[in-house]
Design goal:
It comes from mine drainage metagenome. Pfam families: GAF_2. This is GAF domain-containing protein. This protein is of the alpha+beta class. The protein is built from 15 helices and 17 strands. The chain has helices at about 5-75, 85-95, 130-145, 185-195, 200-205, 235-240, 250-255, 295-375, 375-390, 440-445, 460-465, 500-550, 565-570, 585-595, 600-615, and strands spanning about 100-105, 115, 150-155, 160-170, 175-185, 205-210, 215-220, 260-265, 275-285, 290-295, 395-400, 410-415, 450, 470-475, 485-495, 555, 560-565. The strands form 4 sheets. Strands 2-1-5-4-3 form a 5-stranded antiparallel β-sheet. A 5-stranded antiparallel β-sheet has the order 7-6-10-9-8, with helices on both faces. It is rod-shaped, with a radius of gyration of 68 Å.
Length: about 625
């Protein structure tokens, strides 16, 4: 099978492997993408569910704070300025009823604290307007009376704990305002958020909390200590509390301030932690707060990886098996193609050998027919040259003979092909330059000689050979039966290696041998014809001499039969027969005919035949 078929079959196999591998990879890619989308959808559903729970818990908490504080404010409308002790007792009772309240104050319209759960009745009470941050709280509450306002966590100057400040402005009967300012203990608030998470969720690093005004976060996530922050936190607690966290949720809300709920993807706090999260959020009613839940993306990736690990291993095993099968298939194909190619080479070699043998037999047959039909030696030699050029594709074939006498010049006897190459060519065996070529080597060694045009001994004819496209030369001796080799046949090839095929050389040698035998036979026939012609001429002369003699002459051969009979001999016996009648008669038969004394030519001939068939019988 040709090599092209092997390559085509290999390409088909590799193409099929690539298609199957592509389908496997495409299917696995689709499966991974779909499972990732499903994992994201499932995670977001879980986050939304937990966000809804957080929203309900925080909403209930702050709604309860708003109702209770509103009730407390209505009770204090008439008595907060008259009896600070009574006001303080009521504040303490309210704070004790809700352990989440860390501190609760009644502040007058001028910012002066009237009563506080953290200060005794006779203690010096500060003015909140002196604190810029707290003065901002009062301004905001004054702008929205009878509405509970929440602010970001700060460290309370009264209880020295981290609290979430709230303010409620309530008018008195005379139209002036007083303020209920308190702080929710962040420790207890964080415990509320922690309770909403399962231990597995807390261990996985899920984050739950509330986003307040200005991008402040508080909830179940690490909060810096008083003097230093956790790993990744920048600055201390003061910087953490005073600077808003510009996270993904804050960025999303800045772009969509009207959003009530949604999904978010990115960092919780830029500069605080580098872990990206997936999250969901929902806005609280009546409060500028957003309840949120975040799950770290590595957790989502980990859950997705656990889900897809087994299919990935199965696909990898399938690809490995497919690759192994493809490799074995290619190896078996290669072995099969090599075996097939080897068998084809054997068949081709056998066919070529048979074809060469057939061609050789055909050429030898043509050579034999040519030698049998050729009238003379020149025709035989010319036929040899023509067959070699026409059937074997030789550029030039010629037969030469070296003269006996010095300088033993070579003459061309026959040629075919590019015979112009031989025009004015000079070859002499005794010449130091032209006597070293293929003809001289062949005649001198009496062996076949192979020459290339680049052989130094062929230098005198190199340019001439290149002009006619000649590359290789083969010289074969032509024995003429004289015992001396002075004839040679030269064959010229058109490309290098033309005569490297042993079969071609053997065919040419056999052709030359047949021609040599034909020439020897022709020369022998010609010599025999000349001998016979000379013998016939001598016999004719002898017969003429015998015929002119007056005496009768009869000649017998070694077998005792008449070879010649003269007319004078017939006349001696007065016989009326032709002298040729006695030719080939035996001597006894001749005597019997003569003893008869007379006979006709026909009777004499009959008697002579009987005498020949029955020797020694007399009539």
């Amino acid at each position: 099978m040709p090599a092209a078929s092997e390559h085509r079959f290999r390409r088909l196999t590799l193409g099929l492997y690539a298609c199957v591998l592509g389908l496997l990879l495409a299917g696995m890619g689709w499966y991974l993408a779909s499972t990732w989308r499903e994992q994201l959808h499932q995670t977001r559903d879980q986050l939304h569910a937990l966000t809804q729970l957080t929203h309900q818990a925080v909403q209930i908490q702050f709604d309860q704070y708003a109702r209770n504080l509103g009730l407390l404010a209505s009770q204090l409308q008439d008595g907060h300025e008259l009896d600070p002790g009574l006001v303080r007792r009521r504040l303490i009772q309210f704070a004790q009823s809700d352990r989440g309240i860390a501190v609760l104050n009644v502040v007058g319209a001028d910012g002066q604290i009237v009563a506080s759960t953290a200060l005794a009745t006779g203690a010096v009470k500060p003015n909140l307007n002196a604190n810029p941050a707290l003065r901002g709280f009062l301004d905001q509450a004054r702008a929205h009376p009878r509405a509970l306002q929440l602010f970001h966590p700060i460290v309370s100057p009264l209880v020295h704990r981290l609290v979430l400040h709230f303010v409620l402005a309530e008018p008195t009967q005379n139209g002036s305002l007083f303020y209920l300012i308190g702080g929710i203990d962040m420790g207890r608030q964080v415990q509320l958020y922690h309770a909403l998470l399962t231990p597995r969720q807390r261990a996985a690093g899920e984050v739950i909390g509330v986003l307040g005004q200005g991008g402040y976060l508080f909830g179940a996530w690490p909060i810096p200590g008083l003097n230093a922050g956790p790993p990744g936190a920048q600055g201390n607690l003061d910087n953490f509390l005073l600077q808003p966290r510009n996270g993904a949720l804050q960025q999303d809300l800045l772009k969509h301030p009207e959003a009530l709920q949604g999904d978010v993807d990115g960092l919780i706090n830029i500069g605080l932690a580098k872990t990206e999260y997936l999250g969901a959020f929902q806005r609280l009613t009546h409060f500028p707060l957003y309840a949120f839940v975040f799950a770290p993306k590595p957790l989502v990736w980990q859950n997705w990886w656990h889900l897809t690990l087994a299919p990935l291993i199965g696909t990898a095993i399938g690809i490995a098996m497919l690759t192994l099968i493809m490799g074995l298939s290619l190896r078996l194909q290669r072995q099969w193609f090599l075996d097939t190619q080897r068998k084809n080479e054997q068949l081709r070699s056998a066919y070529q050998a048979e074809s060469r043998q057939s061609t050789a037999l055909s050429l030898l047959g043509q050579t034999l027919v040519m030698t049998m039909r050729a009238p003379d030696a020149h025709a035989i030699l010319q036929g040899l040259c023509a067959l070699a050029t026409e059937q074997l594709g030789c550029a030039l074939v010629w037969v030469g003979r070296a003269a006996v006498n010095a300088p033993r010049r070579v003459s061309v006897l026959a040629s075919a092909g590019h015979t112009a190459y031989l025009d004015d060519i000079e070859i002499a065996l005794d010449d130091p330059q032209t006597g070293q070529g293929p003809f001289a080597h062949c005649v001198n060694s009496r062996q076949p000689v192979f020459f290339g045009i680049d052989t130094p001994a062929f230098h005198p004819w190199r340019d001439r050979a290149r002009a006619y496209g000649i590359q290789d030369i083969l010289a074969l001796p032509l024995p003429m039966g004289t015992g001396q080799i002075d004839h040679a046949v030269l064959f010229y090839g058109t490309h290098p290696g033309f005569f490297t095929d042993a079969h071609v050389v053997d065919t040419l040698r056999q052709m030359v041998q047949e021609v040599a035998l034909a020439l020897q036979s022709l020369l022998a026939r010609q010599a025999l014809e000349r001998a016979r012609h000379a013998e016939s001429a001598a016999n004719a002369r002898y017969h003429q001499i015998f015929s002119n003699l007056p005496a009768g002459v009869i000649v017998f051969n070694a077998e005792g039969r008449v070879q010649y009979c003269s007319a004078a001999f017939i006349g001696l016996y007065n016989l009326d027969v032709d002298p040729q009648t006695f030719v080939a008669l035996a001597s006894l038969s001749l005597h019997r005919v003569i003893d008869d004394g007379h006979c006709s030519a026909s009777s004499c001939a009959r008697k002579g035949r009987r005498g020949v068939s029955q020797p020694g019988r007399r009539g």
